[in-house]
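Ticket reopened. Same input as before:
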Amino acid sequence: MGKLWVISIASISILLPFLCNAFSPESPTDRRLLVLLDDFAIKSSHSIYFNSLKSRGFDLEFKLADDPKIALQRYGQYLYDALILFCPSVERFGGSIDYAAIIDFVDSGHDLIIAADSNASDLIREVGNESGVEFDEDPSAMVIDHISYAVSETEGDHTLIASDDLIKSDVILGSKRIAAPILFRGIGHSLNPANNLVLKVLSASPSAYSANPKSKLSTPPTLIGSAISLVSIVQARNNARILITGTLSMFSNRFFRSGVQKAGSHTKHEKSGNEQFLTEISKWVFHERCHLKAVNVKHHKVGETDEPALYRINDELEYSVEIFEWSGTSWEPYVANDVQVQFYMMSPYVLKTMSHDKKGLYSTSFKVPDVYGVFQFKVEYQKLGYTSLSLSKQIPVRPYRHNEYERFIPAAYPYYGAAFSMMAGFFIFSFVHLYSK
Amino acid sequence: MAAPEISTAAVPTLYTNNALRNAFGGVLAFFILLLIGVMAFSIRLFSVIKYESVIHEFDPYFNYRVTQFLAKNGIYEFWNWFDDRTWYPLGRVIGGTVYPGLTLTAGTIWWLLNSLNIPLSVETVCVFTAPIFSAFASWATYLLTKEVKGTGAGLTAAALLAMVPSYISRSVAGSYDNEAVAIFALIFTFYLYIKTLNTGSLFYATLNSIAYFYMVCSWGGYTFIINLIPMHVLLCIVTGRFSSRLYIAYAPLVVLGTLLAALVPVVGFNAVMTSEHFASFLVFIILHVVAFAYYIKGILTPKMFKVAVTLVVSVGLAVCCAVIAVLIALVASSPTKGWSGRSLSLLDPTYASKYIPIIASVSEHQPPTWPSYFMDINVLAFLVPAGIIACFSPLSDASSFVVLYIATSVYFSGVMVRLMLVFAPAACITSGIALSQAFDVFTRSIKFQLPGISSNTEVDAAETSSATAKAQNDAVKTEKSEETSKNRPSKKSKKKEKEEKPSTKAKSEKKRLLALPLDSSVISLLLLILLGAFYVVHCVWAAAEAYSAPSIVLTSRSHDGLHVFDDFREAYAWLRHNTDVDDKVASWWDYGYQTTAMANRTVIVDNNTWNNTHIATVGTAMSSPEKAAWEIFHSLDVKYVLVVFGGLVGYPSDDINKFLWMVRIGGGVFPHIKEPDYLRDGQYRIDSQATPTMLNCLMYKLSYYRFVETDGKGYDRVRQTEIGKKYFKLTHFEEVFTTHHWMVRIYKLKPPKNRIRGKSKKSKSQKTSSTSNRAKRSGTGKKNPWH
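Engineering reply: fixed in the latest deploy. New output:
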């Protein structure tokens, strides 16, 4: 008996760190990261980036991409919360990881960073394509920009680009403005315009194009101008986040440290914007930011507190929901003035912006429409950068009961009068007819 | 209870003997009726014995569910029941849209039994409600026919009705539908009307209104009553049979009946606002005018009366024309001319197929074929004309009603096969009259010529029986001038017989000559009995084989024994146990009631086809390609799609055979669905010659998905052909359950894709070709290939 106790306590204490660190709805930040590398040199050449992750509390596990022992899941449980693919040239993963495993990993709500590079393998391209971006098909193409390239000692082929064409969103890139341009050397990709899940975070300048810098242009390049995306993010419908970029060197210590001067510009920045940009965006990718949750959905009739099983038409009701944002360490009240609730049956019958008390409690009250049916309280909150909130709660609305109508309608008094006078008249008539000789 | 040998009662010399015979006849009739009731009940139990005690078909499941709700929650909750599990997301106010008669009846029986500490389940009560009420119906038939033609005809008619196949088809144990109680209510209302007409009793008139109220509660077919009775009243007036009895029989029925009918929520103001009820009001007015005219005639001199008539007729005609013009204008201003679609299709049989596919799509709304008459009423079809002739000799108020009843119901049954049910009682009544009259004639002839019996009695018996008929006829005529008397006509005629005895005695020699020869009488009698025997054999066969299948459990007999197909319940049980309680299941509307009752899941459309647009939406989804269908279903929050497929076992009433109706109904509302797109040269086919639209529509795909895996060829046993498109994948739906014989297939809507792919697919093919060693691997990656 005692032995059993020891064993069980021991097993709990072994499991405990895993249990605590696991990605969960309660603390959505990723904890356990698997980094797949082409070779271990990247570990040191990109150490600043990795260290910044480590300092934020992530457990990084470095593995070679073709390590035969790697696995994403064991016994149906995922071992990692996020995956970083710094292995642009891998043709085939080792272990049990393959293309489908990565897609399943994302589809079960985990995050992914993909760094391709020139001569990226088909596998990496395919993973990117599955996520919604399309790398330039020409395997040797790179993004070239003869106008906004980064000034360097040697003239070069203008593949080192200094780009500052960032998405204007504080929630994705942090409130502090990224002043310095971002250094980029790699392949570009394009987005499917019909795809509303993918966002261009860093796009190329209008003068950029994607071609093989070593050969002469024989045909016009297919990817040109600001249609080229250098860094894109995807937020899948299950709120899994993906960062896709066509360069690995962007994460490197060399790019982090080097100064940057954009061609045609006289300001020379001591340090490129890469570190700030990538730190901020990795915070977004790993759910340290912009992760919302909605709890305590409540609705009840005005003046009551219990939630009814169904409403009657023309009832006055109150609806409230608490929305919190994950700050990386704790849930903070989410404050916005654009959260709307719908009272929905095939189309919204009521659409109201909810007011909030600055502590995360959003509430509103409205009158149930004069239509019965099975309605839904719907909150569809999709704001750029934030995880989408999609709450729906079914609630039937019934018509009046037979005894809930007005008993006497003033407009009908003439008819009541007519009916009763008719009855009285008939009675008197019968009486007179029967008893008068 | 009157004795069957009523005619003999008149002979004074045999008075004591006859009293005994009377009493004996009464007891005999009582036991015969009891046995008829037992037979009516027990002939309907084949379904329970052969299958099990289970609710049948589609509509009964809804009635059963409503009864359960009533038994659990009481009548007020039932009245106000808003059902959120059907017609999602519209819901249905059950209390206001259902004919509550059947439910209240079964609920009352259940409550009564339970308060007597007989703990039967609601289901058991529901299963046996129909057989119980068919026993009542045969008793009501006895009463009605007795009022028309005496006890003998009554007993014969009751026996015929107890086992008429048409009625059995709707009232076997488990067939818990409105018609089960409505036919009883119909016949009983007619009986009370005839009873009032014969007696002129206000008591029966009131009972008549209440019986009519019960009929209104039970079935939409009550409009048949409220049109047939006015027709008969009009007939009586036109043929100069107006009497105060007619007035008493009709006026309270209209006033009280309309007031009571308006109390039923589903009828409500329709009782005074729809064209179906106009005839009764019009006849009500005419009746009053006629009554007033007779009254005036009584107080004016003939000359003055003539003047008054010309005056009134000219003024009255002008007023009438004006009123009718206004009415016609009002009625014509509404697009359906104020008639509901079902009634319009009664008057114009082609109406529904032209304008309302949803009515035409129901098989029981189709016109019947000739064989179905033979199947459903068998030998009665030959006896009916004889019965009509018997009704004319002599024609009384009551027998003219029967003639009118049979004439109208023959027409209606020719329009809609479902109304065969209204025709069957009329056929039974007339056939009962015919049979009993024939027996009467033949037995009388035999009696005449058998030497053993004292000829004196025979003559008297024959004499008086024919005299009775004559006297009844006379009585009816003379009564017009009489004050309303409370005497029953039979009693009256008995009195008259005594008066007329001397005169009839004189004719006795002539009557003797009318008797048929002995041998032909005996042979005819035997043939008649043989005919009856054939009828009984046919009825028992129909009850046992044709009409007892519950249609949720199917059986088939083949060389290797009996096969039972219990796929429907298997599928519904799967839904009940494996899906979330608020999940929505889409299927064609036929299976809506069963899904809500057996699987307890919300459905989009069901057999109460009140909202054509909603049904058309589902029809459109079924006839659209997968992606469009997914979008329609997703917008309705549908989680599962259920299709019925008979191709594997050869079950012909599956969704593929119903599919053209889905296209038609869908196309009626959404014009982008066009029927010709699904037909190749006007032919509906699913083989390789089928149109691409057909082969790509959702119904085809859901029915035949993986079908080729069963036999390697994809041979459809219902359509007797190989299917056109054998190997395909579903992109937006996934198969979650298929029953043992593939009769029900349930699919789940895939959730919206988590990610959206990049637009190019070239890279993929490039990859698979370039790295052929990874072909297998990428194959698994392609598991989810849709956008």
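Residues 96 and 372 of chain A are 54 Å apart (CA to CA). The radius of gyration of chain A is 32 Å. Please confirm and we'll close it.
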